[in-house]
Each structure stands twice: as C-alpha cells, then as structure tokens.
Amino acid sequence: MNTPVLPEHSGLPGQVWLASRSPRRLELLQTLGLQVQVFLAQSSPEAEALEAPFEHEDPLLYVQRVTQLKLNAALEAMRAQQFSGLVLAADTTVALNGNILGKPENAAQAFQMLQSLSNTIHEVHTAVAGAWLSNHGRTLAAQNTVQTSHVEFAPLPETFIHAYIASGEPFDKAGAYGIQGIAGQYVRHISGSHSGIMGLPLFETSELIRHIQTVAQATKRID
C-alpha cells in the first residue's frame, strides 16, 4: 500500500493561510501536501486598487511592493480576527522592455498585449512574502522572495489571438495569457520556473516557508 508524502517529510508545516484569490496559487500550494486556508482581507475592487502601479514604476520593484502590501493587509485583518499561523501573499507581473503588462481591461488592450508578446522574449516576475503570526498577534518571523523567468513566444497568429480573447481567458491574467492554458502551445522556450510563471514558484516558496517556520519556532523557544 502506497503512503502519501506528508508536509513534515519536507520540513513544511501542515497548514498555511493563503492571502490570494488565485485558484492557480491554491492548487500549486496543495501539490506540496499542505492544508491551505484562503484568507481574503479585501474585496475584489480594493485588491485591484492596491495593484495599481506607479507611473514608470520598475516591474521588479512593483511586484515586490504590491506583494508586501497584500501581506500587510492580511496580517492586519488576521490580527483583528485573532487568527494565527503562517500566511502567504504573492503577486505576478509580466514585463516587456521594462514596461508592466497587467491584466487587460478590455479586448482591445488584450489584443495589444498579446500582439506585443508575439515572437518576443518577456519577463515574468513573481514575488512571494510570508509571515508567522503568533496567537497573541505578534509577527514571529517574516521573509520575502522574488523569482524571475524569461518566456519566449513564437509568432501568435491573429486568428488565434482573436479566438483566445473571445474565450475570456486573458482577462484575469497579467500579460493577457496563462501558460497553463491553450496559449502555452505557443511558448517556444522558458528560462526559470514554470510554476513561477503560473503564479507561485514552488522551489522558492517552499524554501521561504521552511525558513519562516524555523525562525518562528526558534523565537517561540526564546520567549
């Protein structure tokens, strides 16, 4: 009889909080065997407002700033509700020639993004931030990381772009595409992390979780 690989076998906690609406991030965390509880500190409009970039903001600094804001909002709300444990926040942005490509607001914007990505190499930055909140609302440990991948698209036919937009898939995704969807057939090459491009780099996230847990446990012993 086969036995499952438990989180403890990898030095991970049994449960984490995920401050994200992304079903992809939830699924990726669950592949680690973790029990994941989604915690949403903000309404959807509030979260979208938080993700607004500054004018001419560097994409790498942007994704780190937004991720930290998401984590801070989650920690504040968890303290108010007297929740504790390890909470994770993340954000992903697509960048082309130093410009941020966020989630398209309409079909014309989606078409422009996809056309600009066609037959080019772009960057996908995913930042992750986490913290361990004690039963008394104190932050025992915190850590953040960012992972950058390079994605090369083959030429995207206009017939495909129009059909892809009509499917509705581009509208909740940075850069107007998801590598795990049908657009993945045009990805010629990636350098980096496939899971990071999806929204959560599993290697970096696992390392971050282990570090936070180790520091939190040491802090508890000191207390």
UniProtKB/TrEMBL annotation:
It comes from the Bacteria. Keywords: Cytoplasm, Hydrolase, Nucleotide metabolism. InterPro entries: ITPase-like_fam, Maf-like. It is found in: Cytoplasm. The keyword Cytoplasm applies. The keyword Chloroplast does not apply. It is an enzyme of class 3 (hydrolase). Belongs to the Maf family. YhdE subfamily. NCBIfam families: maf (TIGR00172). PANTHER family: BIFUNCTIONAL DTTP/UTP PYROPHOSPHATASE/METHYLTRANSFERASE PROTEIN-RELATED (PTHR43213), BIFUNCTIONAL DTTP_UTP PYROPHOSPHATASE_METHYLTRANSFERASE PROTEIN-RELATED (PTHR43213:SF5). This is dTTP/UTP pyrophosphatase.
